[in-house]
Write a structure and sequence with these properties.
heterotrimer, A alpha+beta (about 90), B alpha/beta (about 375), C alpha/beta (about 300), A: about 90 residues, alpha+beta, 3-stranded antiparallel sheet, about 25% strand, B: about 375 residues, alpha/beta, Rossmann fold, 8-stranded mixed sheet, 5-stranded mixed sheet, 13 helices
Chain lengths: ~90, ~375, ~300
């Protein structure tokens, strides 16, 4: 039974010299998501993409997340939560 | 209190205040407007609130909203307004929110004769709103009785969480009689008390008992009220295992308690073979006819119904077993007579119905008693 | 199969309840949802009403209101199914009558924040009479009108805000009725706070809703949304995301509108977002409380 809550733990913090890491951790609650694509189409840095079934979004590039909160404030089903990373 | 010459409509307003009504929303309509006028003056004196809404639909909505907010509430209207109120009366029945609706009947249909009396809304009071639903309808026969029955209406509406229609008429509403009202402090009304913790509160639990206690909004019991079929906590549902128990409870919660709800007065004589059965203003006609008949040595029974819905079947059936003929005077073309016929059979019933604004006269009743 | 593609059959009914761990706690918004209500919501995938619900929860959260002090009153329609999902005092009434029910509730409990949540048809067609009177009386009620210019629940009939010429299931040859300007109507009727934004500008909705709810008198927030299932399909306006993007492209701020010349203003077809009225007028329940004090003080 796949994990209901598809949680994305941010990658291990990159070495200091690498590009700054993600500023947000995105969590999608698959049970509530209806696959409407709004988050995918509007995510400014294109962190989110539809998965291979084209039915559900998933966090394709977690490290790019800038915690702009567009997705979780525009998800019609409140199925996304973005946690700001200090 | 001292004896006072009082109008029926005023007695209703006073009865509401005595019963703890603290919110009235209504719309002007002959012949009920005096109820509103009196309450607009009396309610503020007791910290109550009056509002004249933009129409009767809004008035009915507002009294439900106010009761959900914790205030006992009432509206008053007549035929045309009563027709507009029907959808929200059905909402009050579905959501089991107590409220009292006074219908001072006037001659209909349509605009009809606004200042002429009638009892033509009997069936509308029962079936005016769509769908099977419980409702209580009471009819007063005097000014003092209007006061007492208004209090009963509030008591029943709270105790059974149902809309109660006080079905009076222009005659009882507009006539004046000397009346001595009791001290309002002596008036006792059913009060809801919720014992469960908020997290466990089920506003529509199907037992124990026919009527779950009702919590007002803003008292720590946050719950959902909807006109959709709902489960025990009030959420919409289409599941039969949740709907059927509710239907059974709500459609029997009144008929299970007719011993208390059925209000009537029997004036019977041993050996009488003819009876008069009536309600509201026509019950006064029947009483007069009874006196005339008895004065001429004729035995006659009189059953005055104060509760007309749910129909007091037990009492009417017993009367039907006792006499050969039941004369039913009423100011319509035979609406309550249909119920009497349903119980005792058509052959035993004599209708004396007028729907032209004129009262049925005692002589008309006497003629029909002959058989 | 992708990690979170769930086999519907395997999905246990209770799974739809809010999971206890991790996800839910991370967002304050979600704390205002009803823990015992089954999700996801009833609305079509992509419907803007859910976005408005998020904005409303954030606005109430921002004001720090206690759940007990808030009552949501709704009529009938897609928008009216919003209150049940939230942990407030919620009343789902009859079509068009939310503001009339809310009037009784507000007068009974002047201390509560009463918010009437309606769609465009609910508020302005069958509910139009109550809309103008609630505003006229300046009752302390916030009217939140989600305007998607269609009757969605019943399958796409035109409403009082459907643009002229547009198609609906009851306007197969194009709508022949000019629409209401919702905000102007509320202003004319006496509302003391009037603002409009769109579901694309969700955070602006948060702001206007918080200001409206904080107001003492009658306040209106018009949340322009879309219905891609009926209106969008009938008028070939694309997907939910397309229609949300259209709200971005076809709206301007009030400051931009004010800067226009009279001619430009006359020709403007874009949705103007902003606050149009924010004045103070004596609030109904305060006036009536004063009346009671006067009467109980012996005034004849």
């Amino acid at each position: 039974m796949p994990n209901v809550v598809q949680q994305t733990q941010p990658a291990a913090p990159p070495p200091a010299t690498a590009k700054k890491g993600p500023r947000g951790a995105v969590t999608i609650h698959a049970t509530w998501c209806k696959g409407c694509r709004i988050c995918v189409e509007f995510c400014p840095p294109k962190v989110l993409a539809m998965d291979e079934s084209e039915n559900y979004p998933h966090v394709a590039f977690p490290e790019k997340c800038t915690a702009c909160h567009f997705c979780d404030t525009h998800c019609p089903d409140l199925a996304i939560v973005v946690r700001k990373l200090e | 209190m001292a004896v006072k010459l009082m109008q029926g409509n005023e007695a209703i307003a006073k009865g509401a205040v005595a019963a703890g009504c603290r919110f009235y929303a209504g719309y002007p309509i002959t012949p009920s407007t005096e109820v509103a006028e009196v309450l607009s003056r009396e309610l503020p004196k007791v910290g109550g609130k009056f509002i004249q809404m933009e129409d009767e639909i809004a008035s009915m909505a507002a009294i439900i909203g106010a009761r959900v907010g914790g205030l006992k509430s009432m509206t008053a209207t007549s035929g045309p307004g009563f027709s507009l109120m029907q959808e929200n009366i059905g909402y009050a029945a579905m959501t089991e929110v107590p409220c009292v609706i006074v219908n001072v009947q006037r001659l209909g249909p349509s605009t009809g004769q606004p200042t002429a009396a009638s009892q033509g809304d009997v069936m509308q009071a029962r079936w005016g709103t769509h769908g099977d639903h419980p409702i209580i309808v009471l009819s007063p026969i005097s000014v003092r009785h209007s006061f007492d029955l208004t209090i009963k209406a509030f008591d029943f509406s709270e105790k059974y969480r149902t809309p109660v229609i006080l079905l009076t008429d222009e005659i009882i509403g507009h006539m004046r009689e000397p009346v001595e009202l009791p001290d309002f402090k002596t008036v006792k009304i059913f009060e809801h008390s919720v014992t469960e913790k908020p997290a466990d509160y089920k506003a529509y639990r199907n037992g124990p008992g026919d009527v779950p206690p009702m919590a007002a909004f803003g008292t720590g019991y946050r719950y959902h009220i909807t006109g959709l079929f709902h489960d025990e906590v009030g959420f919409p549902t289409q599941r039969l295992d949740e709907i059927d128990p509710w239907l059974e409870r709500v459609n029997t919660k009144l008929t299970n308690h007719m011993d208390e709800i059925a209000l009537y007065e029997e004036d019977y004589e041993d050996g009488a073979k003819v009876a008069l059965l009536s309600y509201g203003c026509s019950a006064r006609t029947a009483r007069h006819a009874m006196k005339l008949a008895r004065a001429q040595g004729q035995k006659v029974d009189l059953l005055s119904l104060f509760t007309i819905w749910p129909f007091p079947e037990k009492q009417v059936e017993a009367l039907g077993d006792k006499v050969d003929r039941i004369v039913v005077p009423e100011m319509n073309r035979g609406q309550l007579a249909l119920e009497v016929e349903r119980i005792v059979g058509r052959k035993k019933v004599r209708r004396v119905g007028l729907a032209n604004g004129e009262m049925v006269t005692p002589q008309m009743v006497l003629e029909k008693m002959g058989g | 199969m992708s990690q979170h593609i769930l086999d519907a059959a395997a999905l246990n009914q209770d799974e739809a309840l809010i999971p206890k761990s991790g996800w839910f706690e991370q967002s304050e918004t979600l704390q205002k949802l009803r823990k015992n209500k089954k999700f996801p919501t009833i609305w079509c995938p992509g419907c803007g009403i859910g976005v408005v619900m998020g904005a409303l929860i954030r606005a109430i959260d921002h004001l720090g209101l206690k759940n007990d002090d808030v009552a949501l009153v709704a009529g009938i329609g897609c928008t009216a199914r919003m209150p049940v999902y939230m942990d407030f005092n919620t009343l789902h009434t009859t079509h068009g009558r939310a503001l009339a029910f809310a009037t009784g509730l507000k007068i009974a409990r002047p201390d509560m924040k009463v918010i009437a949540i309606m769609g465009d048809g609910d508020a302005l067609a069958i509910g139009g009479n109550h809309f103008i009177h609630a505003a006229r009386r300046n009752l302390g009620i916030t009217a939140l009108v989600v305007n998607n210019s269609i009757y969605g629940m019943t399958g796409g009939q035109y409403s009082p805000t459907t643009p002229l010429g547009k198609r609906a299931t009851t306007a197969p040859y194009g709508n022949v009725e000019p629409p209401f300007p919702v905000c102007d109507l509320a202003i004319a009727a006496g509302a003391t706070y009037v603002a409009r934004s769109t579901v694309y500008h969700a955070l602006e909705l948060d702001k206007f809703l918080a200001e409206a709810i904080a107001k003492d008198g009658f306040s209106l927030v018009e949340a322009v949304s879309y219905c891609h299932t009926t209106y969008g399909r009938l008028n070939k306006l694309g997907t939910a995301a397309d229609m949300m993007r259209a709200l971005k492209d076809n709206s301007i701020s009030r400051t931009a509108f004010d800067a226009m010349s009279p001619e430009q203003k006359a020709d403007n077809t874009k949705i103007v977002r902003g606050k149009f009225v924010d004045i103070d007028r004596p609030q109904y329940t305060a006036i009536y409380a004063n009346l009671i004090t006067r009467v109980q003080g012996g005034e004849k």
